[in-house]
Description:
The protein has helices at 6-14, 20-27, 35-50, 67-73, 82-104, 110-116, 124-130, 145-174, 221-252, 256-282, 303-311, 340-354, 390-404, 422-438, 450-458, 490-496, 501-510, 513-594, 597-627, 630-679, and strands spanning 178-186, 189-195, 204-209, 215-220, 288-289, 295-300, 319-323, 329-333, 367-368, 373-377, 409-413, 442-446, 462-469, 476-482, 687-689, 697-703, 706-710, 715-719, 724-727.
Amino acid sequence: MKDLEFDKVLNRIANYCLTDLGRKAVVDIVPIDKREDLLEQLHQTNEYLSSFENENRIPNHYFDEITKEIHLLGIEDTFLEASSFQKILAISETVNELLVFFKKFSEYYPTLFNASQKVEFSKIIIENINGIINRFGEVLDNASVELKTIRKEINGLRGQIGASFTKALNHYAAHDFLDDIRESVVDNQRVLAVLSMHRKKVKGSLLGNSKTGSIVYIAPEATLKISRKLQDLIYEEQQEIVRILKILTNTIRPYINLLNQYQTYLTHLDVVASKTKYAQQINGLLPKISPEKKILLRNAYHPILLENNAKKDIDTVPQTLELNHNQQIIVISGPNAGGKSITLKTIGLLQIMIQSGILIPVHERSEVYFFKTILTDIGDNQSIENQLSTYSYRLKNMRNFLRKCNEHTLFLIDEFGTGSDPELGGALAEIFLEEFYNKNAYGIITTHYSNLKVLADELENVTNANMQFDDKTLEPLFKLYIGQAGSSFTFEVAQKNGIPFSLINRAKKKVEKGKLRLDNTISKLQKERNKLQRTSENLEKEQDKAKLQTSNLSEKELKIKEKLERFQELYDNNQKMLSIGRKINDISNLYFQTNNKKKLLADFMKWILIEKNKHVDNRIAKKKTSHKSYKDQKKQQNLATVTNQKKLEEVKKEVLVEVKKIRDRKKTIEKKVDKAKADYLFKVNDKVRLPDGKSVGTIDKIEKNIAIVNYGLFTTQTNTSKLELVESAKK
């Protein structure tokens, strides 16, 4: 998890938590051991994510931590303050609200509903606290008879204190013993502002003086006596409040396990919500969890890189990769700074995230598998403390890999075989790779070693891959290509970075001809493949354009055909109508000439019979033509009828919901209109009518809610409450 920087992902998720307990829980997240528990966590997060896209948003789950309160409840003879009960009340109400919500929308959030069913729904805590403490965190007067009596006396004494102070103030002010400010406040107590020269004439307790010493502050004697009584009552009030809080604490104490359950549930929900918000930020989703051993990541993004690039407004290149029975291990090669390590970390980090119940940024048609062990060896892990070299450290890692590796393992190794002599280290790396292969482990390694590239071609279920480079600019494209090893472009990259050409040539002479030829061959093959890939992409684009044009032409042809058919039908109908018109015209002209009704009727009936026979013949011909397919049509009609009925039922349900909404809106509008009419004050020249009538009249005069309405031919008197406004008088 350290190699893959999983802690950075957890810290980013923790920032979305609403509570400290949620943040602590997120930081402590580790991959889940059981497949069933993992699926439950993933579905909960996925359901919470769906709540952002529908109208049934999950209620707020924020709460104040009550760990201290739960601890105190576990100690006998302790009691909680009113503020603590406020926190307990809030957490109980929040949980109850969530339980009711998930029960109501159990079809939308089935996994979250199942989790909520493990929590007990109870109103006992809420009712007990509400009976003693108000929403401001104060103990209610009615909490006990004694408290109510004490507070009543306190209020009475406070009134007496005010009255006695006012009396003293007026008395000494009348004798000109007071300063112009007359009074002040010392230690939350009203005092008289007495001139220093008259301080002995004022009875009371001296509480201070001004900076200049010209004024002394004295509390009147009568007021002090009442204040002492008040302090005694306030003390009694506090003692009674403590007694009440002790009783309430003892009432709540048996529910300590329920409160623990409440806090645990809300903390869990805070973790789920923070995972969801993070998934929304990185476009995370839940891919298919494959039952067979297979990884298929389409358009997979490294989440940390994706966020960092988004802040810099840089595009992130996604990777597509698959591991299965036929492609058990992938060996990625190519030049440095081409993205090999990032690709490796992307696959590993996404696998750790999904196995920790966190949604990942991939295409929705991706698939992942539940691995029991994930092993990584990424970066230079030279240990200064243990005095281990990089190679020694890696050999120890390989020993652990060989011990733990099995068919349920995913291993990820960066720069496989480095740290020792290329030939000897490469040979040992070959043996390790063969061991991993024979143990049916799945994995991805990155390397520069040619012998590992060759071995990948020789082993049946091991595949070479490379990170693509622009062969002209030698800039990395950060795209993974499966199926061919990559050249290290060692000399080309050196030349691009300004190393003199003469030095590069000297270096080439020192390299064995075989290695140089192999690297050149791979480099040429990679360049050719890049050209073929570009050509293939261009051809695909052209093919898509051709398909689109063909589709457009087909649509146009179909529309023209439909128009021609409609035109033909219209033309045939017009011809038929013209023929009928001409025949009727001939018969009528003959009648006008001969004035013979019998002849007219006979000709007309004869023509009608001829037309009828033609119509019958056409129907018989159509019936014969369609008789063969009658049974098939009947079946299709029956199927269509059943389908239509189902659709009709669904539509009815949707329509009923919409109709109800429209009716509610109409009722609201009608109420507003009725209220507006009721509040309207009629004026002279307003056009009005009676509610049951259609005639519209004009108000000529209004006296004490009695209006005289002029209908033109007559006038009438009626109460304005019975009138309905048609048009308000123009100003």
